[in-house]
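pasting for ref
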Amino acid sequence: MKEYNGYETRINGELIEELRKTKCVNTLYVSHYFFALNDGENLLFYYNPMHFWGMVTIKEIDQSVLDKLERNCAVFINFDVNEDYKGGIEDNKVSCPSFFPQTPKIGNHYSSLGNRIVSHHSNYYFLSDFGGCSKVYLKNLKTNDIHKLLHMAVVTRTPNFIKSIFDLECFS
């Protein structure tokens, strides 16, 4: 089964570039297996920050799509990728047993300098290089978590199973 490496797929566009273009006039929706960016005119979908998936104009979609995204995703309004974020106290995470991270069937596997993040079943698992593991529910993600995701290498197998953005729950 093919694993899609972010460095191979970023030629189609990266989320971080669109966020820079639309800072202060966007809404970012984060799921455990996709990102959606509402730039005011279009809704752009990404499997992960380095893998553009597809786009639909806001005029073409029903309000129920945006409602479902808001209900099922972490929502960040006017997300500014250039804003300095501070690590601070991470009170949104709970400790969990460590495990050997593998790329999930539906989800993403992020890594940077020994630190790993795996997104799976509406949770993000943060595995540090010293063996600790913490978990955060999707809706409890904070801005600093998104900054981490945007700057990490990423691998996914999701495109093998979900081909079209119209197969997402928000369109059903």
